[in-house]
Amino acid sequence: MANRALRSIVLLAALVLPATAAQPRENANTATASAAFDANLVARTALPTAPAPAANAIDLSHIDPPVDASPVATSIGGGVASYYGRRFHGRPTASGEKFDMNAMTAAHRTLPFGSLVEVTNPRNGKTVTVRINDRGPFHGGRVIDVSRAAATELGLIGPGSGTVELAVLDSAA
User: Fold this and answer.
1) What stretch of H or E contains 166?
2) Helix/strand/coil for 87
3) Is 128 exposed, middle or buried (0-12, 13-18, 19+ CB in 10 A)?
4) Mean pLDDT over residues 21-35, rounded?
5) First-residue to last-residue Cα distance in the chain
6) CA dihedral for 116, 78, 69, 172, sign (positive or negative)
7) How does pLDDT run across 127-154, given as a tens digit for each residue?
8) Which of 23, 158, 3 is nearest to 82 (CA)?
9) Taking the C-alpha atoms of 157, 154, 102 and 108 in order, what is their torsion angle to the nearest 10 degrees?
10) Which pLDDT does position 173 carry in this prediction?
11) Burial of 165 per CB tally in 10 Å (0-12, 13-18, 19+)
């Protein structure tokens, strides 16, 4: 029982005594150590001076960005254009890709695959740019077969064919 009373007194004393009683007293040197730390921190946060640029360095702030040159159109004449669509949709073209009647593509006898051609209908002034991905046309005096989407834009769907002017687009100015 005496043991229990002693424990109660110790517990009560621990609760009553201030919490700072167990902490050590501040050292007099702490203030000077804190001041030295602050001075060192300020010295570390300042940026070093930049070195002088080398004699052969290029100042990038004075260089103009490259200008994207618009494609230059080289006329290759004109003639009759027709279109092909639903019957050939999904079939392989001469370039190996599947024909998509909804894409802006065309067939030409001699232009390289991937060439961009500006096709203009002089009757209504409408122009489209198509990519050559097939060979043809092989009917009469036609010069180009365009996809159904291109023919729609050019206004060739009703008549089925029409006179057009062709120009190959070059990306180099």
Assistant:
1) strand 161-170
2) helix
3) buried
4) 61
5) 106
6) positive
7) 999 999 999 998 888 999 999 999 999 9
8) 158
9) 100
10) 45
11) middle
Assigned token pair, 49: 């001076």
Work out the mean pLDDT of the chain and round it to a whole number: 84
Look-up: residue for tokens 């209504």?
A: 124
pLDDT-derived band of residue 3, with 50, 70 and 90 as boundaries?
A: confident
How many angstroms separate the CA atoms of 137 and 84, rounded?
10
Q: Which helix (H) or strand (E) holds 31?
A: helix 30-45
- Dist CA 164 CA 77 (whole Å): 9
Amino acid identity at 64: D
Query: Which residues fall within 8 angstroms of residue 62, CB to CB, at 6 or more apart?
Result: none
pTM of the model: 0.60
> What is the C-alpha separation between 153 and 168, in angstroms, rounded?
18
Which candidate, 135, 131, 141, 132, places its Cα nearest to that of 161?
141
